[in-house]
Amino acid sequence: MTAIMSPANSESTPAQTQDDRDLLFYEGRLNRPTKAKTPELERSGRLRHVIFSGQFSVDLLEELAGVADAIRKLSKHRSGQDFLINLLHHKRAMLYFTQPSTRTFLSFMAACQILGITCNEVRDPQTSSETKGETRFDSIRMFSSYFDLIIMRSPIARLAESCAYLMNDLERSGNRSVPIVNAGSGADQHPTQALLDIYTLQRTFNFSGPNDSEHNSRFDDLRRLPGCENLSKGLAGKTYAFCGDIGRGRTVRSLALLLSNYPDVRLVFIAPNHPTLVMRDDLRQALAAKNVRFYEFDSFEQQLDGRPVIEALDALYMTRIQREHDTGDDAERYAALDFSRYCLDMDLVSRMKPYAPILHPFPRDQHFGEIPQEIDNDPRAMYFRQARNGMWIRSALLAHLFDVDGQILRYFHREFSA
Amino acid sequence: MTAIMSPANSESTPAQTQDDRDLLFYEGRLNRPTKAKTPELERSGRLRHVIFSGQFSVDLLEELAGVADAIRKLSKHRSGQDFLINLLHHKRAMLYFTQPSTRTFLSFMAACQILGITCNEVRDPQTSSETKGETRFDSIRMFSSYFDLIIMRSPIARLAESCAYLMNDLERSGNRSVPIVNAGSGADQHPTQALLDIYTLQRTFNFSGPNDSEHNSRFDDLRRLPGCENLSKGLAGKTYAFCGDIGRGRTVRSLALLLSNYPDVRLVFIAPNHPTLVMRDDLRQALAAKNVRFYEFDSFEQQLDGRPVIEALDALYMTRIQREHDTGDDAERYAALDFSRYCLDMDLVSRMKPYAPILHPFPRDQHFGEIPQEIDNDPRAMYFRQARNGMWIRSALLAHLFDVDGQILRYFHREFSA
Amino acid sequence: MTAIMSPANSESTPAQTQDDRDLLFYEGRLNRPTKAKTPELERSGRLRHVIFSGQFSVDLLEELAGVADAIRKLSKHRSGQDFLINLLHHKRAMLYFTQPSTRTFLSFMAACQILGITCNEVRDPQTSSETKGETRFDSIRMFSSYFDLIIMRSPIARLAESCAYLMNDLERSGNRSVPIVNAGSGADQHPTQALLDIYTLQRTFNFSGPNDSEHNSRFDDLRRLPGCENLSKGLAGKTYAFCGDIGRGRTVRSLALLLSNYPDVRLVFIAPNHPTLVMRDDLRQALAAKNVRFYEFDSFEQQLDGRPVIEALDALYMTRIQREHDTGDDAERYAALDFSRYCLDMDLVSRMKPYAPILHPFPRDQHFGEIPQEIDNDPRAMYFRQARNGMWIRSALLAHLFDVDGQILRYFHREFSA
């Protein structure tokens, strides 16, 4: 591909491997601001590759949620299931997961299977081909010659993005090219996690109930509760609190940025006072640049709107402390901290607003105990439904990528809305 | 789930992990007699979870055999295959095999695929989620949110049973819940192995032949042979011999208990005289409680009905010595034993009744040699067909769990019986 | 099976395992000349098992190419995809890859999936069953009882061939038997790689272009170029050069033998002057026996037809040096060699005939650099298309094995040729 005919290359020192040169070649494109990148990740207004959460506009998020809802409802009926399973049964996906993640992996598998997509996987960090001296890009190009979609998760920051550029270069030179979906790359991005978090909030803040009717609805009931008089539907105008490992929380970062696109939201970050765990400057700056109101607290008891934040928030996003990424001093400094203050208990939950959902990207840590099991049965505990939502919204995203989302909506409205 | 609000929990010592507490919580239910447990493993007279061989009544075994026969015959015709492959193509199964077993694993995969069920697997003893502090129950609940069925094999005794209770608790509290199938847990149970052993005996003791007609049948021919005058069809009234590792044979145990439900059977256990290998007291007591006639021998030459048992038995179930579970002294004590007496040879086989099937749960051990290959071509060698039977009967079991067995029988009788 | 009742066996020493005896039993059949073996790998003129490249006659290669072309074109249309995906959706394949090869593995997976075949895999060199003392043949027979096809790759020379004989013996004794496809066994054979190399040459030497019309075609244009006046379509009468690790190149060996079946071809082998890397005697003799003209060179500059061979060849097959198979002295002797002479560069490529394709079995070695990436965009670079061709031709081979190739051709001509 054209990549290698670039100056970046001819300058390359002998010490470099081709893998190094491949990434180096894309350096320039990788370093552009997200805004400048998004156009080449799209084709005629649709996503072609899914790399950043920044690609999801509020409108697109609404659109995908609608498709996900349709897929969910179709899946309740045999005729709907048959329709879905035949939609993309001729497509083959490669799940290239060199960074392990059972949950994300299985969620994508299920999302593919709902639409009939056949899944293939490579999870061994170094495939046998790579041991034979094959470059990463040759491996990716091999996958693209056998499969119709590459869903990849890698410990290498920005590899997924580079692969999207590789695919674009191939497309431009008239070669075979397939969509790339980033299922988590390095520490930087995990866009489909943010997607399912938003989808869960969209469903929660729709406030619909099983017994809703013309005359009565869960939403009306909620508004009759003290302090809920001004409750409104949707994500706008609400206060979102994040608790735990804010500094290393890839999902916190992505979700906060997506929420900042909704009007009039407030973000609260509750973390132990520890350099590794508190908010990073780049996120501070990104939020400031968007004029989002945000607060950095170190306790559920700090005041917001004249009351403890645990009572003031509209949604609580819990996270686990990512011990596996600790450095030596981290562990040391931890000794001084009282982590129990960043774990929920029934008493704290009972003080939350009656409708305020508790989310968690999962897995939760049984040893740290940020969410004890006794909370699982509280109606506000949304984290298990959140996992299932991930499957539906990823299916919707795949339908969007293969341009069958419109077909799904038409079928749904024709067969099931009447 | 409600689990954790139990006293068992509040009493728990800090040393305990949540995993410990989860199992402890079910202690009470786990310790009930099987009879008391079966009801909550059923829904309106059908199996919901498959945990014990004790769940299979003689009637249910007949029913499942009928479904398995129909599936087998449908699979011989393209139209039948198309019918089957579309029956459950919208269902997704998780095969959670943290205890390796290629044979059982592949048999379940094939059984799912015959009905169009898409298979997913987790085989790594510790999934990446567990390394992040996730509890086993959170992992199971994750699987249940993405998939429609969990087939699990685990080294942890009674884990499958506990998961079935977890699913029941979730169902009761209005959450998503899926069937659990035990594909072998700890040393205690391997119900689907017993199922395929019985199915193989059902087919063998049907005595049908390829050339059966109104006027003549293999069964009539057999009854004309000396000593076979009183031969009857079916499993009742027959003598079943088990040879080899009786003490540790999970499959021996399960099969013996199922056979004891048939009228007038006799069971013979042939094992080296070694505490590890002979029958365990709990099985002795279980059989005694059911008034089954059983015998403990240490040789094929011991007398039954006035002749060597090898000549008296109606079916012979061979097993391998499970060396991988040996302790230090086991190996030592073995020195004194002549294991060759627990290996078949052509001479022994030639003395068996002409219709008596030889079964083996497989794999057989080429080093121990309990069944030398020269026996493979003897018409009594049933162990390879036994493996294929396992695929058919597991398909029938899955059809039963998803309530499409009736549909299969109706289609079969409409299209193929005429 | 009958295997074990053979004298070969009774003579066997106690030191032998059953695995040893199993292979020993087939010794006689394994040592026959290929010609004598092929009949029992066929059924009524169709391939039953795919073991050697020697099974592919020129006619069969033409036939398979036609089926592969039809599958490729059908896959461009939704109706064609639906036709293909339903063709064999009731079939289950076992990919038994105890010698790793991501590329071959994925290519077969995709080839199966195009026709709707469900794939299952065992890749762990020792399955849990084998650790329990199961013989290789018992494992293979287990696979054959659950699945309809076994695609196997093994480090053990001639294991695939032995398994084909096992299946034939089972068939003869009225037992279940399935086709065996050799996806690479030991150092000897990799027939489907040779198949895709030939298919790529068939497509290249068809010289068709996107803008071909009645009045003008790429072929005519090429013939107008100086030195191309006598260019003819097809593989006959052309000069094929192989460069790199000729001695250990399993694919070089298979392809050379297939090419030698075409009239009037010349083969050139370009390798460093090193006993491990140059042509082996057995290949020399095989080619001599077929009266093929072949040349052994150590440089692209050696003369053929009065000019450097790089300018004289019609197709160039590059390979990587298989360092993973080096012995101690190999590495030592290498020091004396200038490997750069066996790597392509833009200058060499520019001297090749304008239509001469560059092939490579892949993966290429980024450290050795036999094909630098800057060549990827040259129209002669065929190695990425070659990979995708492997998927199509393997699909065609599977269609042939399951006897649906005729159905594909009929459907294609009815629906798409008009």
TrEMBL record, chains A, B, C:
Aspartate/ornithine carbamoyltransferase Asp/Orn-binding domain residues: 237-400
InterPro entries named among the record's database cross-references: Asp/Orn_carbamoyltranf_P-bd, Asp/Orn_carbamoylTrfase, Asp/Orn_carbamoylTrfase_sf, Asp_carbamoyltransf_Asp/Orn-bd
Listed Gene3D superfamilies: Aspartate/ornithine carbamoyltransferase (3.40.50.1370)
Domain of life: Bacteria
GO biological process assignments: amino acid metabolic process
Keyword NADP: no
Domain named Aspartate/ornithine carbamoyltransferase carbamoyl-P binding: residues: 48-202
Molecular function terms from GO: amino acid binding; carboxyl- or carbamoyltransferase activity
Protein keywords: Transferase
Keyword RNA-binding attributed: no
One protein family per Pfam: OTCace_N
Family named by the database record: Belongs to the aspartate/ornithine carbamoyltransferase superfamily.
Protein name: Aspartate carbamoyltransferase
UniProt lineage: Bacteria, Pseudomonadati, Planctomycetota, Planctomycetia, Pirellulales
